[in-house]
Amino acid sequence: MKSVKVPLNQLNDTRIRLMDMGIMNMEYKIKAEEKFGYVPINNDIEGYEIVDIDLEPIKQHPKSFAELLKDELSEDEIETLRTSFDTIGEIVILEIPDNLEDKKQIIGDAALEFTKRRSVFMKKSAIKGTTRVRDLEFLSGIDDSVTIHKEHGARLKLDVREMYFSPRLATERKRVMESVNDGEKILDMFCGIGPFPIVIARNKNVDITAVDINESAIRYLKENIKMNKLKGSIETYTGDIAVVSNAFKTKFDRIIMNLPGLAYTFLDLAVDLIEEDGIINYYEFSDSYDQGIKRLKNACLKKNKKVEIINTRKVKSTSPGEWHMAIDGKVTSE
Predict the structure, then answer these.
(1) How do residues 293-322 score in pLDDT, each as one tens digit?
(2) Parts of the chain belonging to CATH 3.30.70.2580
(3) Which residues pair with 317 in a beta bridge?
């Protein structure tokens, strides 16, 4: 490699000067020996000794996911992929359209290189069943579906093949945590591995009852409770909330209902279990807030209660025109 040879004590000043002049070759590393240093250059320059020497090339990390795929996919295809993958700890989960199925291995390898994560999987089905899991296909890296995801200081261990988890709800979990007061009794009806309970109990002195029908999710939740330093306490139950709730001896100041596809079917139970002036954090898939607000009000009306809607927001887009909606309601007596 063509280089400028200078005494070692002049190496840094020479490097700066050659960079300023635009002559230094930025694709190779500078070499320093006992008495002399070598700066790679693109063009000859007067006033310096020029030599040819072996230099180590600098590893070039791709500037973008698009750069890795530019020779394989169109710009529109790359843009679709860029917004269609989740990073959970050391795992990347891709959503690859049917028309790109034949290039899934190329895409998986590119995602592994760009994200520098351990494993890449692709979605093979929608979330299904009462345990809320989806089929995944391993694409690249190491075929290990267990990872630890970090969120707002919390550590959440999970197996992406055995339970559903969305990193895109991190902001929503933080928002709910910040609305919680110390001393609250909280029920998470569909807790999964416990992202809401763990994030809340790390920051607030509360008593949380966490329920999920997925045995694997509760097993990992118990590990997560041990892994995190909590200010509050979390008690776990495995089973259908409609059955498990028969064992409860108390009502709750807050109930979290993050099962957006089916939460509405449990609103009557939530109203039965909520304390006077308690908050229901209710979630559903919809194109507007109207449907969720109506359902919450009707559930309260049947129990001779009323609800004050204190907050609404769109958590994330789920499909064109449909959103993961959040509605917070304060329940009181008529």
Answers:
(1) 999 999 999 999 999 999 999 998 888 889
(2) 2-52
(3) 323
Which helix H or strand E contains 86, and what residues bound it?
strand 85-88
Is pTM, for the whole model, over 0.85? Answer: no
Q: For the packed helices 195-203 and 215-227, what is the interaxial angle rounded to 10 degrees?
A: 20
CATH code at 65-144: 3.30.300.110
Identify residue 29 by its one-letter amino acid code: K
Name, in order, each residue with C-beta under 8 angstroms of 161's C-beta and a sequence gap of 6 or more. 133, 136, 145
Provide the b/e sequence for 241-272 (b: ≥16 CB within 10 Å).
beebbeeeeeebbbbbbbbbeebbebbebbbe
What's the maximum distance between 2 C-alpha atoms anywhere in the chain?
92
2-52: what CATH class?
A: alpha beta
H or E segment and range at residue 269: helix 267-273
**Burial zone of 80 (CB within 10 Å; 0-12 exposed, 13-18 middle, 19+ buried):** middle
What one-letter code names the amino acid at 161?
Answer: R
Domain 168-333 has CATH 3.20.20.60: no
Q: Got the DSSP string for 100-117?
A: GGGGHHHHHHHHHHHH--
For the chain, residues with pLDDT lower than 50 are none
Q: Give the residue range(s) of CATH 3.30.300.110 domains in the chain.
A: 65-144
Residue environment code for 300-330, b if the CB has 16+ CB neighbours within 10 A, otherwise e: beeeebebeeeeeeebeeeeeeebbbbbbbb
| Contact status, residue 5 vs residue 50, Cβ threshold 8 Å | yes
For residue 153, give the amino acid letter: G
Residue 270: which residues within 8 A CB-CB, separation 6 or more? 189, 255, 257, 280, 282, 299
